[in-house]
Amino acid sequence: MPGEGAESLGRVRAGGAVAVLLDALPATPVVSAEDVERLTHGGRLYAMLPRLVEARVLAPLTDRKRDQLWGAIDVLDELDDLNRRIGRRALAEP
Predict the structure, then answer these.
(1) What's the CA gap between 79 and 54, in Å, rounded?
(2) Could you tell me if 19 and 31 are in contact, meaning their C-beta atoms sit under 8 angstroms apart?
């Protein structure tokens, strides 16, 4: 997934769990721990998630400790921007 956050991750091993998750985030921008495990085929979830949050690739979407959800910041920002542009265009049309 391109973006500012992904660049701050440093070296990402091709084919590794982080790379697999980064590739999946555009299609799955909101993920649970179970989603991450499924997408990365059991990658080191609890080592990976803090790294991705610190790099601002993912952000927690809830305050819960259990059943936490994370969002892909860049993807969600793009979707929000698209939603605003569609809304402005819809309001401008006669």
Answers:
(1) 22
(2) no
Q: What fold characterizes domain 4-92?
A: Arc Repressor Mutant, subunit A (1.10.10)
How confident is the model over 27-69, as pLDDT tens digits? 999 999 999 999 988 877 788 888 899 999 999 999 888 889 9
On whether the CB atoms of residues 90 and 83 are closer than 8 A, the answer is: no
d(CA 22, CA 57): 9
Helix (H) and strand (E) counts in the chain = 5, 3
pLDDT band at 8 (very low <50, low <70, confident <90, very high): low
Which pLDDT belongs to residue 3? 47
Nearest in space to 75 (alpha carbons), one of 43, 51, 91, 52: 52
Please, are residues 26 and 20 in contact by the beta-carbon 8 Å criterion? Answer: no
